[in-house]
Amino acid sequence: MSDKAYVQLKNINKSYGSVQVSKDVNITVEEGRLVALLGPSGSGKTTILKILAGLEQPDSGDIYIGGRRVNDVKPSERGIGFVFQSYALFRYMTVAENIAFSLKIQKWDAKRIRDRVEELLELVDLKGLGDRYPRQLSGGQRQRVAFARAIAPQPKLLLLDEPFAAIDAKVRKELRSWLKELIREVGITSIFVTHDQDEATEVADDIIITNQGRVEQTGQPIQIYSDPVTPFVAQFLGENVTTPDFRKFKGFEEVQKGDFAIIRPEYINLYKLDETIQYTETSEFGTAEKVIFRGS
Ligand code: ADP
Ligand code: MG
Q1: Residue 230 CA to ligand 2 centre (angstroms)
Q2: Ligand 1 centroid, distance to 70 Cα (angstroms)
Q3: 41 lines ligand 1 (CB under 6 A)
Q4: 86-109: buried (b, 16+ CB within 10 Å) or exposed (e) per residue?
Q5: pLDDT at residue 1, as a whole number
């Protein structure tokens, strides 16, 4: 293990029947980082979380958490908290009972549970709502309860699987920045799954890009965006067009390597005919046939 690594997956392989859903997955997460697993649906993100959590066994490979190999350690003993999109709150328990749930299982004494629940309600901005039932809360509030429940027993690692997916767009954005700040405040190493690139780039310190069971690239959001190492990553991030005939453009005639070019709009300048053109040697003349307004 490298020094600062808190979580490490080494050469993980996993198949369901004849379908291989993790292909030699290597992941390192440093202590205290907030990392996004970002990839299209079906690319194996949830499987990676489940393997870390001990809810699935890999066919081969090693799992290290906090320096300890945990392949044979039970889920409940891996020191992990979860917020899963589908891991809904218990409907017939109050907010406070939901948060206290795992503390009761761990046989904390009543006073200590009460104090911890109060502390968490305050932390997630739900002070005074402990006696409500989940149905009396908004979607965003419910996810905050799920978060409080997950971190109640002070896990060393938090896993979140598409935690914002079921929440409407505006609240989702608020909840994202809220979560980022809170995780920073609590200082807990966290890995969250998303298929939404905006969510990953806004929230995460580091991004791990998954595609068809493989890790394509790992790095800080800006590194991955500005220096994609595979065509998949280049196409997956940002707006872009893929151009097979790129050698027809001025300035690209001599480019030797490559089957196609992936072009991002921020590298294109548009000028009207009566404007002064800055880069004449790489400019093309053409007619805009259709213009669509897309906000900013
Ligand atoms: P993601 O979270 O990126 O959407 P998953 O890890 O859930 O991807 O799934 C990866 C692939 O594994 C998908 O093709 C999915 O259908 C398949 N898969 C996941 N869980 C099972 C299972 N229990 N049995 C069979 N196939 C599964
Ligand atoms: Mg998933």
Answers
A1: 22
A2: 22
A3: yes
A4: eeebeeeebbbbbbbbbbeeeebe
A5: 47
Label the pairing between strands 241-243 and 261-263.
antiparallel
Q: How far is the CA of 41 from the centre of ligand 2 (A)?
A: 7
For ligand 1, what atom is nearest to the CA of residue 193? Answer: 2
For residue 44, the 8-state DSSP code is S
What is the distance between the alpha carbons of residues 88 and 110, in angstroms, rounded to a whole number?
Answer: 24
Any ligand 1 atom below 6 A from CB of 194: no
- Ligand 1 proximity of 211 Cβ (cutoff 6 Å): no
Task: Name the token pair of 248.
Answer: 């027809």
Determine the Cα–Cα distance for residues 52 and 67; give it in Å rounded to an integer: 14
Report CA-CA distances (Å) from 142 to 94, 96, 133, 173, 186: 11, 12, 10, 15, 19
As a whole number of angstroms, the distance between CA 213 and CA 204 comes to: 21
* pLDDT at position 270: 86
| pLDDT for the residue 133 | 96
Q: Cβ contacts of residue 28 below 8 Å, gap of 6+?
A: 2, 5, 7, 8, 9, 218
> Which residue ranges in the chain fall short of pLDDT 70?
1-3, 86-87
Probe target for ligand 1 pocket from 46, 48, 56, 86, with the most ligand atoms within 8 Å of CB = 46
Q: What is the pLDDT of residue 90?
A: 92
Q: Report the amino acid identity of residue 34.
A: L
Ligand nearest to the Cα of 12, by number: 1
Q: Report the nearest-CA residue for atom 19 of ligand 1.
A: 47
How far apart are the C-alpha atoms of 229 and 224, rounded to whole Å? 8
Give pLDDT, residue 155.
94
Residue nearest to atom 25 of ligand 1 (CA): 16
Give the number of the atom of ligand 1 that is nearest the alpha carbon of residue 49: 6
